Backbone:
């Protein structure tokens, strides 16, 4: 019994400490994840970054399209889960246990995020400073302030830098 309580406390702590650094874990729905790729319109061999990759479901769709993916995720349990769950796509996908605010973003063709409203301006600045153009950003649920979305679909916003 005490073992179950201990494991529960550890799980609660691991899943809640990320709130200090970004959005809590809440996965993108399957339909929206598929729509994100329609908006991103990436090609085989392109690279997609996901900031806060959760359980890796969005990057799995990337790999199924031949797109390379790098996921940055602060929750170590989600990184371990994603790595094991997507082992068959290991040549295309990498899951890194990192705080994406502390990573210098590499060159890529697309970025996918599901953050919180208060982080969107900071993200915009980070993309401009580190990735440059051209790159496409799809954000689920939250808009980038002072930037016009090229397209919108089912709560997803496409921005072209
Ligand atoms: C709203 S969830 C979205 C998960 C995934 N992108 C999806 O759409 O299914 C946000 C994710 O970002 C992770 N996260 C929050 N802040 C982070 C940070 N600073 N660096 C890396 N990951 C972070 C959380 O652990 C969580 O898994």
Residues:
């Amino acid at each position: 019994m005490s073992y179950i309580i201990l494991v529960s406390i550890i799980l609660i702590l691991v899943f809640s400490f990320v709130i200090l650094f970004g959005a809590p874990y809440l996965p993108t729905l399957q339909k929206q994840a598929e729509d994100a790729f329609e908006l991103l319109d990436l090609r085989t061999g392109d690279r997609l970054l996901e900031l806060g990759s959760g359980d890796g479901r969005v990057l799995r769709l990337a790999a199924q399209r031949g797109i390379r993916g790098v996921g940055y995720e602060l929750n170590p349990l989600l990184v371990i889960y994603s790595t094991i769950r997507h082992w068959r796509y290991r040549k295309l996908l990498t899951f890194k246990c990192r705080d994406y605010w502390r990573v210098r973003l590499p060159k890529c063709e697309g970025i996918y995020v599901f953050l919180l409203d208060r982080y969107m301006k900071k993200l915009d600045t980070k993309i401009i400073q580190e990735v440059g153009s051209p790159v496409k950003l799809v954000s689920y649920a939250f808009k980038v302030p002072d930037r016009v979305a090229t397209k919108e679909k089912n709560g997803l916003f496409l921005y072209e830098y």
The mean pLDDT is 95. Residues 2-16 form the longest helix (15 residues).
